[in-house]
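haha ok so turns out i had the wrong file open the whole time. this is the CORRECT one, sorry everyone. sequence first:
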Amino acid sequence: MSALLDTLDCPPGTRMLLEVAGLEDKLTTHCVGHARGRFVIAQMPHLPETGREALYQLLYPDAAVIARYLREGTVVGFSARVIKWIQVPFPLIFLTYPGRLESHDLRRHRRVHCCLPGRATFGGSALAGMLLDLSLSGCQFSAVLDEAPPPVRIDDTARLSCELFGADEAAGLDCLVMRVASSGRRLEVGLKFRDLPPAARDALDAYLRAALSVLG
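then structure:
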């Protein structure tokens, strides 16, 4: 289902797909930042030298661009125009700020808010925290840190443990990092379950059914 959004919620570092008029392939880049009502800045996509010059020719002022990014399981897209692109001091593309945002929810399963103790391992770093929302496809994990957070990036793998999935270590779930946000000492990570063993899926399904029967 598509819907209209009022606010561009695209933090720096968010991966974006750009469709540039005249170019068949979609280009992968990252958002650098934006100023409400003024502009959006994206990194210049990395291309082989043979395709780079063709892209530069198509990024003329007022050229049409469609940008899309993923935000908490929802694809957000908008149309914009190229303001300009620069190479120095960094290769960047300046786009007009969108007047209209459209979203499409990719999540197949309804999420419920929760507060369940859990433990997530990123690389070699294990963090104790809480699961703040939960569905059959993923969850949001939050931790308050006493030191610098471990390097966590989108598309990293993680291991999530929670008594809901089982008490032993083998009951932990392999996950994929979909979102990373930090504020002060708090780290929040959106996780997608890569594979749900039958026992964990049954326990999770029973919990969600019970929660939804109360929440309506």
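The domain at 112-215 is CATH 2.40.10.220 (Thrombin, subunit H).
again sry for the mixup
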